[in-house]
Amino acid sequence: MLAAQTRIETLLIVRHGEQALLTLIIPIALLIGMSTVHIGDLPEPRANSVMPRILALAVMSTAFTGQAIALGFDRRYGVLKRLSATALPRWTLISGRVLATLLVVALQAVVLSVTALFLGWSPALSGLLPGAVLLVLGTLVFGAAGVLVGGALRPEIILALANAIWFVLLLAGGLALPAADLPGALADIAGFLPSGALAEALDAVLVQSSLPGVQPILVLLAWGVACGATAVRTTRLT
Questions:
Q1: Distance from C-alpha of 162 to C-alpha of 156, rounded to nearest angstrom
Q2: pTM exceeds cut of 0.85
Q3: How much of the chain, in percent, has pLDDT values that exceed 70?
Q4: Distance CA 16, CA 191 (A)
Q5: pLDDT attached to residue 17
Q6: What are phi and psi of 213, to 5 degrees?
Q7: Quick one: average pLDDT of 68-82?
Q8: Could you tell me the end-to-end alpha-carbon distance of the chain, in angstroms, rounded to an integer?
Q9: Tens-place pLDDT, residues 9-34
Q10: Phi-psi region at 43: left, alpha or beta (left = phi > 0; alpha = psi -120 to 50)
Q11: Crossing angle of helices 67-76/128-150, nearest 10°?
Q12: Could you give the angle at which helices 90-118 and 26-36 cross, rounded to 10 degrees?
């Protein structure tokens, strides 16, 4: 049952046009553009500095924005209510969606990695395994935030709000520009946002070949626990 549910959820994500735009087209376009256009003072090859931020963007797009919108419309059309009335256990519904999101993130990572290699990306090999762990952690954290937004509000509000939050986290989280290049207080705030914390941790393991640091991990865990605990109390099936 879990395998079947995971397959269905994965196909629904992959076949959705807006999801494809968020999960692949925009991240690939930004990866190519930021790696080839000389904006900001980045060492060569620029793809080394850009790739961790694009990976964080990809995770945020799939696990947060995509899941929030999908959950909101599933509630609107009664999908969750009908599924909960079947013999399918609730834990299978949740696990299937989580595993599907992880599979899509893995697909994103592969496609983006191949693209980045053509752009000169040379990751620290010792950071590949910690980087994979960070992607899983980031997926769970942003997934919890997506459930929080998508589980309580009306779909029309979710559509606007999820995209607005995505845009804010893209800019203020140091994904479009490195956190050090952000103006004023934004440079300090970026590290306390989940997008900035994930990008910082990925940069540490993939570029600097070091441990991700305590602060980014604590920031991600804090956001995950806060969003998850709130989502449990506020999520509705309809």
A1: 10
A2: yes
A3: 98
A4: 32
A5: 67
A6: 95, 155
A7: 85
A8: 23
A9: 888 887 876 677 777 888 999 999 88
A10: beta
A11: 30
A12: 30
